[in-house]
Amino acid sequence: MKNNPEYRDILSLCLLFICFFIPPPYFAHFPHGHGFKSFFNLDTQQQYQLSGTVTDSYGPMPGVHVLIKGTNTGTFTDPNGGYSLLVNNKDILVFSYLGYHSRELPVLGRTTLDVEMQSEVTELQEVEVNAGYYTVKERERTGSISRVTAKEIELQPVVNPLQALQGRMPGVEIIQPSGVSGLAASIRIRGRNSLRFEGDYPLFIVDGVPVNSSPISSINPFASSSGIDPLNTLNLSNIQSIEVLKDADATAIYGSRGANGVVLISTKKGTGNKGKASLDAKFYSGLHSVSNRMQLLNTAEYIGVRTEAFENDGITPTETRAPDLVLWDQNRNTDWQDVLLGGTSTISDLNMSVSGGNDNTTYVLGGSYHKEGTVFPGDSGYKKISANFNLNHSSTDRKFHINFSTNYGVDNNKLFFGTNYVHSALTLPPNAPELYNSEGGLNWENGTWTNPLATLYAPQTIQTDNILSNLSISYELLLGLRFKANLGYSNLNSEDKTRNLMDSYDPDTWDRVTLTSYHSFTKRKSWILEPQLTYNRGFKKLNLDVLGGITIQNNQNSKLSMEGSGYSDDSVVGNLEAADEVRVSNNENISYKYAAIFGRLGINWDRKYFLNLTGRRDGSSKFGPGKRFANFWAIGGAWIFAGQRALKNSPSFLSFGKIRSSYGTTGSDQIPDYGYMDTYEPTLGPGGLYPTQLYNPDYSWEINKKLEASIQLGFFKDRVNVDLSWYRNRSSNQLVGYPLPSITGFTSVQANLPALIENTGWELALSTLNFQAKNFSWRTSLNLTFPSNKLLKFDNLDLSPYRFTYKIGEPLDVAFLYKYSGIDPTNGRYSITDVNEDGRYDFEDQTVIRNMGRKYYGGIQNTINIKKFNLSFFMEYVKQDSYLSDLTITPGRFGNNTTQVLDPWRQEGDNPKVQKLSQSITSFLAYNRVLNSDLFVGDASFLRLRTLSLSYQLPNRILSHIKVNTCTLFAHAQNLFTITNFKGLDPQGGKVVPPLRTITCGIQLKL
Amino acid sequence: MQYRSYIMLILLCFSYTSCEDLVEVDIPDHKIVSETVFSNNETANSAVLGIYNELSRSAFSSGFVNSITVLAGLSSDNLRSTVSSANRVDFEENEILIQNSNNLGIWSSAYYIVYMCNAVLDGLNTYTGVSETMKQKLIGEVIFVRAFTYFQLVNLYGDLPLILSSDYRNNANRSRNPIDEIYDQIEEDLLRAIELLDTNYENGERLRPNKFTAMALLARVYLYLEDWEKAENWSGQVINGTEHFGILNDLNAVFLANSREAIWQISPKGRGEIGSHTREGNVFILLTNTGNVALSEDLFAAFPDNDLRIQNWIGIYDTENERYYYPFKYKIKNAIGDATEYSMVLRLAEQYLIRAEARTEQGKLPGAIADLDIIRQRSGLEPIAILDPNIAQDELLEAIMKERRRELFTEWGHRWLDLKRTEKATETLGPIKPLWQSTDVNYPIPEEEIRKNPNMTQNQGY
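^ inputs. structure came back:
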């Protein structure tokens, strides 16, 4: 099953060949018809015969539906693309065909009306791709840019835009940390470029405004490792497209911030509709639940395992050692996965927007509401409200242009602090006591257990509001010369509040309990100003695009963390005024300034040969005086050797061909601010100051050199499009803590190290139109990435704090493991090899090196249209190794385990995967060591059906009665199934809340 | 066209600012640059307060399970582990691995304090603005703290790199200076501190070293250097400071904040946590479980039955199978609000014992007996003056050493250092510690330090 994508790929290719080698008659290529002459017939009452031919760029089109607007009268074109109809002078004809854009044309007294239809497929090459400071046609781009549009995103019932992109772009690795909503997904574009985990964030730009995308830290047990994503407040339905810029050619214009790639998010713009306003409304609602569970023991099995463990140890179970055997009911059976993770909750989303305008001015005004419950017990959940506005105006002479957009979002994530329910669900003994006592309060069973529901009395709310605004003004000074200014503003406020209420503690301890609350406030404010000049001119066959500009950016980030304690009772917990003592644990205000000059020169000859030069000079306040500025540049070129114009000279099956290549440098300044300053900060204790770091005023930019080569081909009239790229990124001058002995007062100082990291890889994007007929079409798009990552050089690695994490010649995602040497036949415990035979197990024995990164990954999307039905499904495939979670704890110790422990080692000669059942410390230590060995590392590849959606567009004849333009009914499913060898909850995270399985139904209306 | 004039205006604005200005950031309000810190009295004073705050949480000095108090206690015969944590058991078994993280913790946290002191000295010398009186006081305090820290380090590790400035470029590759040079520096610093500091405690709080504090440490230094006359002299000066100090009759009041017996204490409030208990109280007191460490049977057996310190300074925790004795000098395991107990660093009882020893070594036995009896009587023991007025010199020395063990247990590893300086370690520990080797008297230099610094050498036996 794990080879499914490749298999599918071969299958679809075969189908394609069958399609093309046995071409149905309607694919035949005929010369275009030219019968169009227009005469005005003033007699409007008279009906007369109108005829014509419908073609696309390859020739006549049979089966096109031709309808007189507002009536049921219509016909289909014949095999030669011809049609004829009895029409009235005032009639408007609607030409529609699946997979093509509908066209509406007035008759105006014509007797012949020939129409050329625009296919969505060929249009693929004509799409304007957003490259940030400029746009470029898909067919003419010189850089590596992947794009996902609203269609793929808007129906997904997720909170975060990144989550919706998982698996959809080659070279873009997105990992959702768990099924808990609102957590920051990790994104890596073309691998890890930095030794620092926090140094791999791409640059996020929403409508021209750079957004600080580093997660907001939270003490929540679910969020503590990943943080909260500041992009959550964006409304997914309002995203027009997301472009990811990858190679030097595309990213060098972002200079220092482009090293890890750039993610451009564009929101929807208004469409001029002749003064008429139109209303778009979308509503969906559904259910979600956890998509996976583990096979755990029931009470009978559990008691058996525990009893055997005590027998093996020759120890009698006592009240303190084994409350589960001695004190608790031996027959109670609770499925804790059901109780703690098994909830099914609702999700609903309402989205409305009004758009309208005329030729000069357009606007969109929209709002959305999103709400989802929780799979955990209790009333936690996630809510989001967003509003957006876009106004676009051009002067009649098109010289002046202004665009204003603003996106505002508020979200509220209700969680709880303390226990992580995943751990409880997997390890609570199945005979653990009742949750509630007879009075309805929490049952603590005389202090013999910690009631998992106690954690619900430590509620936590994380509330964030975020506004992103952009104003862009441009004016054409001379022919082709345009001045443009972008002004962006963003402001994010986040408040994280945790209250530890009395009921979260065992009543027996209430006299000793101090009620506390934790608060943290994050503020991020930034503005950016980017005046630019652009010049576009064509001189015969030479076309010139010139761009020059300046960026000035200013960020203010602040964080305040406080702890209140000594509240008198539950009702005032969280009100700092009522606290006996308030302690500030962190208070920082960081200011970051950034300025740059950038430029681009795009030259093409005859739209066939392209050269693109980009450059940027960057200054960042993260570096000391004299080290702040650096230059970044890139050169990219492309040659269209087979296109529509060159078609005659190329093999008939090749409809498009382009090779492109680029080389250049980008940089990174993702290090803490103020590192070059010799500073003191207040100590946690009263009245004191402490020196924060050794300071080095001399460090400077990390440099990332990117090389890329690519070939783009279109076959069979662009029904098959292939884009194959190879890249090599080398990132040097790594900004790391340079190791120092502690006698200097610190263990490291921020410095540039001549460490070199290389990312290479192959990326394939393939899109095919497998089949197209009158009422049926089937498209497939596939992407596949083979990444490779290697640490090429690191001077004095074995002296640095990174020596246990990295190894020269190995990827950065590497694990050093003990060598598992089987179950020791003398005592039945796991054993590992003491490689250096020093009698101890330490890092020197961790000699097995395994690459824990992805080996290859991809996604495949299929879209099938049958009449008014549309079925699409998307699958993600990842080939990887991971820590396999076969067991939850040491087999035999207190706590539930997987059914695997039913087959443990019992006597010499046994060769199972589970050691002798035992609750002793020695067994515990043996298990803990083996967790870090190659025994539990193995294939955790998976194939996941990410999305499946089915929609039905109501026919026009029904709609015309109710004055609705379009109405679509849809059903959508997320994470329906995952095929994997991995035994734990989620192959991407191990023992985390697995991605939620969500099923929704909804309706989309346009009025 | 008016658009054009706007554009010209914007372009004009840019031409007035230089590029450097655009990326120039102010110092954020949660940070202060050194130059500002050391250009006025208040902030310079805060930089020194920061050192005391750091001492309350720093690994070597906090009194926590990874502090000298616990680890050196384990290395001697005073403490035992009640839970098997390899990094601590190594100390107990005197088999410390060069990778031991607790050992690295002592070393690096102590050198961080040295760095903080040096940074204050460098700051005060580089920048101007701090008044001369304040400067003298601050310099006096930080060279005292530096001397104190080096005293701990040199007694645990032997030869040390003697770091006296804050510039890492000069310090990163330093080799070890011999013990003599370290002691010369300690002596010089303490003498200077005595000169610079005055005799008062600020606000009645015994948290900042004064002239007496420096004298008290200097007395100990001379004792260790076997300069008996000076040791007697300096401890005598402290003992004579009766306007501040006195031996308390109530044993339970000794470790209270600002007790009259205290010469220097560290406030637990310096940790900046809600809890206001001392780490020692938190680690040692056993209430609901057997904790991490307990007193050794050997130490408990060293107390005569009628010793008041048994009831007052030793607690008992019983489980089904076993009895645990724990240090109960600090009475509070957990507290919030104001701190009622401070961590004791230097106290008067030790000064009496120093003088008793110094006098004995010089043959001044009656004076020595008088000093020793002050401690004995407070503990309810019969005075030597009555019990054995004609005690021989070596017997008296032995009695003093026994008294030191009983009086100063679980305070800064006194027992471990006493065994080392009197060269009784092998004799005393050899029979009870199966893995004992004579080279174990010095802790190993942490492996990381040797790997990072080509000029660093390892102690013998590792």
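Chain A touches chain B through 66 residues (CB under 8 Å). Residues 4-21 of chain A form the longest helix (18 residues).
thumbs up if we can close this ticket
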